[in-house]
C-alpha cells in the first residue's frame, strides 16, 4: 500500500468529486448551473449540515428552485464541483436564519464530528470540504493587510479586499499539523492532556511552525512533550481535519531513547504501551483510544496490527468498546 492508498482510507479523504477548477471563473456557466435541475445544494447552518438521519445519516441536498422558494438567508456560497452528472454547491445560512427543516422528523442539522464515521466516505469528504470553506469565509471577513471588508469571489474560492487601493486577494487557508506514532521495542508512545476525557490517550500531535519542515515538526513536538528523540521518521498518510481548519500529516517514527520527561507540561501523562497492555487497558476501561474517525486511530491501528495476531478493529468489537462519544477538546486541540 502506498501513501495515496493509505490516505484514502482516512475519513474525509476518499472523494469522487471533480472540483472543476476551470468553472470557478466562468460566471456564465455558473449562472446557468445555479438554476439547472441537475444542480444540488448542501446546506450548512452554524457549522452543521442538513441531513436525513433515518434510517441512516445522509446529507440532504436541495435544488436551486427550493433555495428561492424557501427564501433562505444565505451568508456564503461555494461551488464544489461535480459528482457524476450532478453539480454541487454548498450554501452557508446566516446564523440568525430561521431554520425549519421541512417539517420532517427525520431531517435535521447535525455536526460532522458526530456523524463523519457513519457517512458514506464520499459524502464525508465533500462535507468536510464545504465546512472548511465556510469556516474560512467566516474568519476572513476583513482584510488582514488594510482592515477593509472583503467580499467573496471566484465562486467562493477567494475573498477580495473591497478597498480599491488594496484589492488584496485572500485564498482559503489550512493549518498543517503533524501527528505521529512513535515506537520503541514494539511499544507505542501514548500521551494524554489533563483536559481530555478520563482515560483517553492518543499519539503525539502538534502544529507545524513557520520555518520548519513537517519532519522537523515531528521531531520537535515529540521531544518537547516527552523528551524522546527520534532516529527515524516516515510519512504515513494525511487527513483533512475541518475542526476547524487543519490538514493532519501522519507519521510513524522510531525512538532513540526510552526515558520520558514531560518537558513542556502540555501532557499530563505519557507512557509506552505494548499491544497486550493496550488490550488490558481497554478491558479494564482504564484506557481509551481516540475515535475511529481520526488519523490518530489509524496510526495506532497500523502499529497494533503490525504487532498482533488479531486486528484492532476485531478486538474492539469483541470488547464492545464504545467510541461514539466525541470530546469537545478535539475542536481546539486537533
Ligand atoms: Zn485590503
Structural key phrases:
334 residues, alpha+beta, Nucleoside Triphosphate Pyrophosphohydrolase, 2 domains, seven-stranded mixed beta sheet, six-stranded mixed beta sheet, 10 helices, 16 strands, binds zinc ion
Q: Could you say which overall geometry the principal axes of the C-alpha atoms support? A: globular
Beta-strand content bin: 25-35%
Order of helices and strands: HHEEEEHEEEHHEEEEEEHEEEHHHH
**CATH architectural label of the largest domain:** Alpha-Beta Complex
Profile the largest sheet: 7 strands, mixed
Number of helices: 10
Q: Give the CATH topology of the largest domain.
A: Nucleoside Triphosphate Pyrophosphohydrolase
Task: Give a short overview.
The protein is α+β, with helices and mostly antiparallel strands and 334 residues long. The protein is built from ten helices and 16 strands.
Describe the overall structure.
By secondary structure, this protein is α+β, with helices and mostly antiparallel strands. The chain is globular. The protein contains 10 helices and 16 strands. It has 2 domains: 3-140, Nucleoside Triphosphate Pyrophosphohydrolase, CATH 3.90.79; 175-332, Nucleoside Triphosphate Pyrophosphohydrolase (Alpha-Beta Complex). The relative contact order is 0.13. Mean pLDDT is 92; it is low at 324-334. The longest helix is centred in the middle third of the chain and has 19 residues, at 121-139. A hairpin with a 2-residue loop joins β1 and β2. The strands form 3 sheets. Strands 1, 2, 3, 4, 5, 6 and 7 form a 7-stranded mixed beta sheet that branches. Strands 11, 12, 13, 14, 15 and 16 form a 6-stranded mixed beta sheet that branches. The chain has a 3-stranded antiparallel beta sheet with strand order 8-9-10, with no helix packed on it. Residues 143, 145-146, 148, 161, 163, 166, 168 line the site of zinc ion.
Amino acid at each position: 500500500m502506498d501513501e495515496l492508498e493509505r490516505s484514502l482510507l482516512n475519513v474525509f479523504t476518499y472523494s469522487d468529486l471533480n472540483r472543476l477548477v476551470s468553472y470557478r471563473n466562468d460566471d456564465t456557466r455558473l449562472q446557468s448551473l445555479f438554476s439547472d435541475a441537475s444542480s444540488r445544494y448542501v446546506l450548512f447552518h452554524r457549522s452543521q449540515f442538513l441531513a436525513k438521519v433515518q434510517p441512516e445519516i445522509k446529507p440532504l441536498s436541495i435544488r436551486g428552485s427550493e433555495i428561492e422558494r424557501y427564501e433562505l438567508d444565505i451568508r456564503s456560497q461555494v461551488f464544489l464541483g461535480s459528482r457524476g452528472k450532478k453539480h454541487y454547491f454548498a450554501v452557508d445560512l446566516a446564523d440568525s436564519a430561521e431554520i425549519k427543516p421541512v417539517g420532517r422528523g427525520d431531517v435535521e442539522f447535525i455536526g460532522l464530528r458526530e456523524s463523519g464515521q457513519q457517512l458514506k466516505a464520499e459524502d464525508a469528504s465533500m462535507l468536510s470540504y464545504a465546512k472548511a470553506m465556510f469556516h474560512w469565509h467566516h474568519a476572513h471577513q476583513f482584510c488582514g493587510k488594510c482592515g477593509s471588508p472583503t467580499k467573496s469571489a471566484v465562486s467562493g474560492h477567494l475573498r477580495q479586499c473591497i478597498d480599491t487601493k488594496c484589492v488584496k486577494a485572500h485564498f482559503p487557508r489550512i493549518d498543517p499539523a503533524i501527528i505521529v506514532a512513535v515506537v520503541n521495542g514494539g511499544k507505542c508512545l501514548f500521551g494524554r492532556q489533563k483536559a481530555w476525557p478520563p482515560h483517553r490517550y492518543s499519539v503525539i500531535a502538534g502544529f507545524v511552525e513557520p520555518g520548519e519542515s513537517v519532519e522537523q515538526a515531528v521531531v520537535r513536538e515529540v521531544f518537547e512533550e516527552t523528551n524522546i528523540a527520534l532516529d527515524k521518521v516516515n510519512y504515513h498518510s494525511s487527513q483533512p481535519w475541518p475542526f476547524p481548519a487543519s490538514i493532519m500529516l501522519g507519521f510513524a517514527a522510531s525512538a532513540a531513547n526510552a526515558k520520558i520527561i514531560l518537558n513542556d507540561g502540555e501532557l499530563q501523562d505519557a507512557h509506552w504501551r505494548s499491544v497486550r497492555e493496550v488490550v488490558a487497558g481497554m478491558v479494564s476501561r482504564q484506557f481509551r483510544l481516540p475515535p475511529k474517525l481520526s488519523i490518530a486511530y489509524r496510526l495506532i491501528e497500523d502499529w497494533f496490527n503490525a504487532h498482533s495476531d488479531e486486528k484492532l478493529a476485531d478486538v474492539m468489537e469483541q470488547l464492545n468498546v464504545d467510541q461514539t462519544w466525541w470530546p469537545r477538546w478535539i475542536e481546539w486541540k486537533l
